[in-house]
């Protein structure tokens, strides 16, 4: 008997795994190969390679499915970036991706260029936490499938994350399917099915014993406001700061109890590819995710979470009081 989304899971896991391995190999060799995007954020050979590989695999298996991905190939068509494109092609050749050529690489990347909501689509962040990637810290390859506005499958490839039950193993692949639980497998393990380790959030309802995590970048989440919340709730432990959706994984596997993402400026809207996979992972591990006002995140609004502000992730028991405190401190206004 097949379980729902089994084929999607197989294809997506194998694509994210391959992309994560390419990212790892680029990270090991990284020098100064960074492009600056129009919004001044960085993008590397690994971001583009990861998006190309995953979109190629999804397009082959599910040609009808749109992909809302973070990157596009516009910059790669420019003559000045010709060498950069050649380096992406070289990475894909090294990974033995069939039919690799500059034209196909751009085509695959642009296959991830959907922007609009549809009844079934994938959302992809080929490297979430590019700044963490450049610092050789945490980053994640993030892929999720959304059907009728609901996240039904999520995968996070975290090449620098210790495996939850064996910290000597570096590199963890997290996956979840709605109503089927949340799991971790070592990124290097070949027999993924056998090694699947179910992950769970903590059960504490005591803020004084709890730990929260947040972005390294204070421009992505307000450290000042999280400090105020921590003081009000008597959270004594130091926050754990790490880049990317690895924060969702840390809560899902019980290494922290809370993840706060508090707006730094009015008008910023979170992008769906920065959250979808992580949200389902935490929910399936028993936790709760809302925005800072306590509203569920709405994944049927196109590429942004248009109707939400910030994100609050907890183990569940800590959620109501945390949302209430954000209101009392007027952080949600
Ligand atoms: N003002 C902002 N508020 C929240 N998130 C942001 C903001 N600016 C960029 N981001 C996104 O935060 C994500 C990284 O989060 P974290 O710091 O938690 O690792 C990136 O995907 C980044 O998007 P982008 O890569 O498009 O700049
Ligand atoms: Mg980016
Ligand atoms: Mg990214
Ligand atoms: Mg991102």
Automatic annotation (TrEMBL):
Requisite cofactors: Mg(2+)
Catalytic activity reads:
adenosine 3',5'-bisphosphate + H2O = AMP + phosphate; 3'-phosphoadenylyl sulfate + H2O = adenosine 5'-phosphosulfate + phosphate; adenosine 2',5'-bisphosphate + H2O = AMP + phosphate
Q: What is its EC number?
A: 3.1.3.7
> Gene3D superfamilies in the record, alphabetically?
3.40.190.80, Fructose-1,6-Bisphosphatase, subunit A, domain 1
Which residues of the sequence carry a binding annotation for Mg(2+)? 70, 125, 127-128, 274
Task: Extract the SUPFAM superfamilies matched here.
Answer: Carbohydrate phosphatase (SSF56655)
Give the record's keywords alphabetically: Hydrolase, Magnesium, Metal-binding
**Would the keyword Transcription regulation be found if you checked this record's keyword annotation?**
no
So which domain of life are we looking at?
Bacteria
State the Gene Ontology terms under molecular function. 3'(2'),5'-bisphosphate nucleotidase activity; metal ion binding
For this entry, list what GO says about its biological process.
phosphatidylinositol phosphate biosynthetic process; sulfate assimilation
Name the family.
Answer: Belongs to the inositol monophosphatase superfamily.
What is the name listed in the Swiss-Prot or TrEMBL entry for this protein? Answer: 3'(2'),5'-bisphosphate nucleotidase
The organism named in the record is: Gimesia fumaroli
Q: Which gene encodes it?
A: hisN_1
């Amino acid at each position: 008997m097949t379980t729902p989304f089994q084929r999607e899971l197989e294809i997506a896991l194998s694509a994210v795994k391959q992309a994560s391995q390419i990212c790892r190999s680029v990270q090991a060799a990284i020098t100064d190969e960074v492009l600056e995007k129009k919004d001044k954020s960085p993008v590397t050979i690994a971001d583009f390679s990861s998006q190309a590989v995953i979109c190629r695999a999804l397009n082959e298996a599910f040609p009808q499915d749109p992909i809302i991905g973070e990157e596009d190939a516009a910059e790669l068509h420019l003559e000045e970036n010709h060498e950069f494109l050649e380096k992406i092609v070289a990475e894909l050749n090294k990974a033995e991706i069939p039919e690799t050529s500059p034209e196909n690489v751009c085509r695959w990347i642009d296959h991830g260029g959907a922007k609009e909501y549809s009844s079934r689509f994938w959302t992809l962040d080929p490297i979430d936490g590019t700044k963490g990637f450049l610092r050789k810290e945490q980053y994640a390859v993030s892929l999720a499938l959304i059907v009728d506005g609901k996240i039904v499958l999520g995968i996070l490839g975290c090449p620098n994350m210790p495996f939850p039950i064996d910290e000597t193993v570096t590199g963890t692949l997290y996956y979840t399917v709605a109503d089927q639980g949340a799991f971790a497998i070592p990124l290097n393990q070949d027999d993924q099915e056998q090694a699947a380790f179910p992950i769970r959030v903590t059960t504490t309802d005591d803020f004084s014993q709890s730990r929260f995590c947040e972005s390294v970048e204070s421009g992505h989440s307000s450290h000042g406001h999280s400090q105020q919340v921590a003081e009000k709730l008597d959270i004594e432990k130091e926050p754990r700061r790490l880049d990317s959706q690895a924060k969702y994984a840390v809560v899902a596997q019980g290494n922290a109890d809370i993840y706060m993402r508090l707006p730094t400026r009015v008008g910023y809207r979170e992008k769906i590819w920065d959250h979808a996979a992580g949200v389902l992972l935490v929910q399936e591990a028993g936790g709760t995710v809302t925005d800072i006002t306590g509203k569920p995140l709405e994944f049927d609004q196109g590429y942004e979470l248009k109707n939400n502000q910030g994100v609050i992730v907890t183990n569940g028991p800590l959620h109501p009081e945390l949302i209430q405190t954000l209101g009392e401190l007027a952080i949600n206004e």
